[in-house]
Amino acid sequence: MQTLATLSRLKAARNRHLAARARADMRDWQVQRRERTKHLIELGGLVVKAGIVELVDDDRAALYGALLWMADMLRSEDGVHARVLWKRRGKRTFEGEQLEAKEDRAIGR
């Protein structure tokens, strides 16, 4: 019994060690994969933050279609103009949210 308990503890310790080593793995491909994953999560967060997911009722085909429409718009003659407008609006919204967050922190919300 004691040997089985010791073996179980050793397996758990080995698993913890392997998990810690995997988290600290700094090989180039691992770092690049983590950076890509973080980037994709941030982009998905923007889709959610804009409220698009709720507006299309989590319909991925509609969401994909909207993104394809945006890509077509950016490739068109008015693409540069659309990009400037979208960027300006996004910056204003980000700045407004940052200002709102500062005010909330100032009043202790």
Structural overview:
This protein is mainly α and 109 residues long. The protein is 84% helix and 0% strand. Helix 4 (60-75) crosses helix 5. The longest helix has 28 residues, at 79-106. The N and C termini lie far apart (55 Å). The relative contact order is 0.04. The mean pLDDT is 92.
> What is the chain-wise order of helices and strands?
HHHHH
Low-confidence stretches: none
Total beta strand runs: 0
- DSSP helical segment count: 5
Largest sheet: none
Structural class: mainly alpha
Separation, N- and C-terminal Cα atoms: 55 Å
Helix content: over 70%
Measured by DSSP, the beta-strand proportion falls in under 5%
Apparent shape: elongated
Report the C-alpha radius of gyration, rounded.
Answer: 23 Å
What is the average per-residue confidence, as pLDDT, rounded to a whole number? Answer: 92
How are the elements arranged and paired?
Layout: H1 2-23, H2 28-49, H3 52-55, H4 60-75, H5 79-106
Helix pairs in contact: 4-5
Short description:
With 109 residues, this protein is mainly alpha-helical.
Fill in the keyword field for this structure:
109 residues, 5 helices, 84% helix
